[in-house]
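Weekly structure sync, notes
Attendees: PL (lead), two postdocs, one rotation student
Agenda item 3: pending single-chain targets
PL asked that the sequence for the first pending target be pasted directly into the notes so everyone works from the same version. It is reproduced below exactly as submitted, 551 residues in total.
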Amino acid sequence: MSQHRRRRPARNVKTGIVVGTAVAVTVGAGVGLGLWASGDNGGGSAQEQASSSSGTSDGTASAGRGTAPTPSPTRSYPLSQAPRTIPAVRSHTAAHGPGWRPARGERVVVADAKLADEGRLIASELGLTYAGEQKDVRAGDLRLAVNGGAGANPESYTMTVRGGTVSISGPTDAGVFYGTRTLKQEVHGGGTAPEGVVKDQPAKAVRGFMLDIARKNFTAKWIEDRVRELGDLKFNELGLHFSDDQGFRVESDTHPEIVSQQHLTKAEVKRIVALAQSRHITVVPEIDSPGHLGAVIAAHPDLQLRNAGGVAARGAVDISKPAAAKIVDDLLNEYAGLFPGGQWNLGGDEYQALMVSNPQASYPQLAAAARQKYGSGGTVSDLTTAWLNDRAATVRAHGRTMRAWNDGFLAASSVQPAKDLRVGYWTGKEYGARQPVAYLSAGRKLVNYNDEFLYYVLGQPNNFVYPTGQRIYEQWTPRVVRGTVSVPARYDAQILGGTFAVWCDLSGSQTQAQVAAGIRMPLRATVQKLWDPGRPALSWAQFTALAGRLG
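Predicted structure, written out during the meeting:
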């Protein structure tokens, strides 16, 4: 964030409109092709700006000012235009006035101590002074407040720029934080926050980015840089897929023998989690099972699934063996303390025993275990669904909300997946594929990981192509769950949001820097459509130019 500042220009005495005069005009998100109001167009003195408003949007009285002098004639200001941000704000009520830009010595004031983190962060980013809780109102203040707002979207906020001050309020500290992200973008590079009132909220509650660190080692610093980027873009989830056939990338005390040489220490994970929490981002861990456990099997070869001919199934544990469940539960219990967020991904996809034409014949030990547990009609699908349910019970005991990949919900199983499992829908290509409506009509809640738009797979194997931001921006919405077709609008509320995912199948295909560059515009397009799934006001060329200006 640039901290470039300009001295407020001296008063230009000229008959015109009083600073801060509001005009009740609301414009849609992104309207207006230029960020309105540069201080070079006039601004009046600090005293004039302060005297034009008797309070702040959160109701704080203008205490400590004394009697305002009779205003002098001020310069005339054009009607403000909507802010230009990513994602675009949902609504802006225009007004006449000079707007606001940060200046050294001005304050960030909070109405409640629980906003101290948000206040200190924006103060440091804009070069302001964090003043904590203060009753008086000064020209240039940025004031933050939680305003209750029963029934309001908890991530919503109102930002009022009036009379040389800014107030940001919301029903929770998360909403206030998102308001500070809007302000940060508005003033980036010496810009001015336009006069008026922004009322903003996301359309979708899940706005995620998932990173496969199992197949490719990413440094803690690289991940922290992405957390900062995600926070500024109003993402609120970071998924970490850290266990797979190629590696297990987080330090373990219960099973150190499975950990890859290159890995994140627990201290590094704690720093990532703390940084994410400060940006209102939940870290969603994933230990995929019963498939994709090759790194665990490498240290415990006796757990590997083998078919009737003795051929090993890649990455799959033999779920008829109690030891396989024990080691996975050991890890789930251990990492519940390391990842305190409320979300967890259980995986459940691509279990090799179910990717053959006759699982019962190919894996007779699994069929025998299923019959023992469920009677003569028990199947390998039943046993596999029971495995997923048992792992869900382990994680549920830690108070987490769980999701699993859609191909972990088995159509052929008489045993039903736990009712509280959410669907991470990524593909329609799995064995026994079902349309998204099959899950939604059953009442399941769903997170959209559509591999047609949101999968960035290193090396582009299996007909994957690197997604473009333009295609996401122009063609995808959260209701486009599979392929390019939207599900019916009646299911919209069950689609909690979406996640852009980086998978590292051919890990050497790109460096960390290339990945960061490659996902830059797709991330921005994804969050725009999760914040507001409607047709964007800006063309793709304009959106790209805006992203370039904002950095």
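Discussion points:
- Confidence is low (pLDDT under 50) at residues 1-73.
- The chain is about 30% helix and 20% strand.
Action: rotation student to compare against the earlier draft before next sync.
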